[in-house]
Design brief:
It is a single chain. The chain is built from 9 helices and 15 strands. The chain is α+β, with helices and mostly antiparallel strands. The strands form 4 sheets. Strands 1, 2, 6, 7, 8, 9 and 15 form a 7-stranded mixed β-sheet that branches. A 3-stranded antiparallel β-sheet has the order 3-4-5, covered by helices on one side. Helix 1 packs across helix 8. The two termini are about 25 Å apart. The N terminus is likely disordered.
Length: about 290
């Protein structure tokens, strides 16, 4: 993913601190506080997944994920939220080291990541598409892509799915090119023929096509194969294992945003349709 030379920070007032919590629950780091005495929460993002999270014209993080998290912290007045833009790998390593308290990158769920990080309630429903050059060979399954070239980011769910396909089907392997480039670069490479295909989610495809109108085409990924990308079709914020209290506060606010229609309102702003998860997704965390 695109590495940014500078770190962007945006400070937003928010949140109530958890009270009366047992010693088994973690709490937000109090090593960092603002001049107002509020606890500073640092949210890290790769910021290259438009319309979910990207760097806007004002050089600040923008997108659906950002708008939802801002709305969450509007309900948490004892916290201050700061965004830091970095590369994808540093989002995860920074959570592990305690530099960040929240990861914001439209994360899907998988068991390996779930063993390392806490997941919030889901806040978005997603679907994926194969993207190929317009007029070229259409890809409607991973088998259709055997022997073709794919470009994607290191460690992201779609690249992991291609790797898993290759491990299970070495005689039908897909050639992988890893890159830290923005998704727009992947689409341009497909359009100019330097790569055969890429995989992105439908909302991102629609957003980039509206802005750039690349010479590409899409095909939906079958439901059974979509599970290779993500074990479910929802997006989450992630937290270090010691931030149980913070996750509880964020989850409480997310549920309120679902109930009062704010999630629906924000999704219609960015996607033109309601992608808020079903009510039962706000009853129990996935891990």
């Amino acid at each position: 993913m695109k590495k940014l030379a500078s770190i962007l920070a945006v400070t937003l007032a928010a949140g109530v601190l958890a009270t009366g919590c047992g010693s088994s629950s973690g709490s937000a780091s109090k090593d960092s506080s603002s001049d107002s005495g509020k606890t500073v929460i640092k949210a890290a993002t790769g910021a290259n997944a438009k319309p979910y999270v990207y760097v806007g014209d004002d050089d600040k993080p923008a997108g659906y994920d950002v708008d939802v998290l801002n709305a969450v912290f509007d309900k948490l007045p004892d916290y201050e939220l700061e965004y830091e833009v970095t590369d994808f790998g540093s989002v995860l390593s920074g959570l592990n080291s305690g530099n960040y308290q929240i990861g914001v990158n439209n994360f899907s769920y998988n068991e390996d990541r779930g063993a390392s990080y806490l997941y919030s309630y889901s806040y978005d429903k997603i679907s994926y598409v194969f993207v190929t050059k317009k007029g070229g060979k259409e890809i409607k399954s991973f088998e259709d892509a055997a022997g073709l070239s794919f470009e994607g980011g290191t460690g992201i769910s779609v690249s992991n799915a291609v790797e898993a396909w290759n491990e299970k089907n070495p005689d039908k392997a897909i050639n992988i090119t890893y890159s830290d480039a923005d998704t727009s670069v992947f689409l341009q490479h497909v359009a100019d023929g330097s790569q055969d295909f890429t995989i992105i989610d439908l909302a991102m495809y629609n957003s980039y096509m509206e802005e750039f109108n690349y010479d590409v085409q899409k095909n939906d990924i079958p439901e059974d194969e979509a599970k290779m990308i993500a074990e479910n079709s929802y997006a989450y914020y992630i937290f270090p294992q010691d931030q149980k209290d913070l996750r509880e506060q964020v989850d409480k606010a997310l549920k309120e945003l679902k109930e009062d229609g704010t999630l629906t309102e924000i999704s219609k702003k960015w996607y033109g349709q309601d992608t808020a998860p079903e009510d039962d997704k706000f009853e129990e965390t996935i891990n």
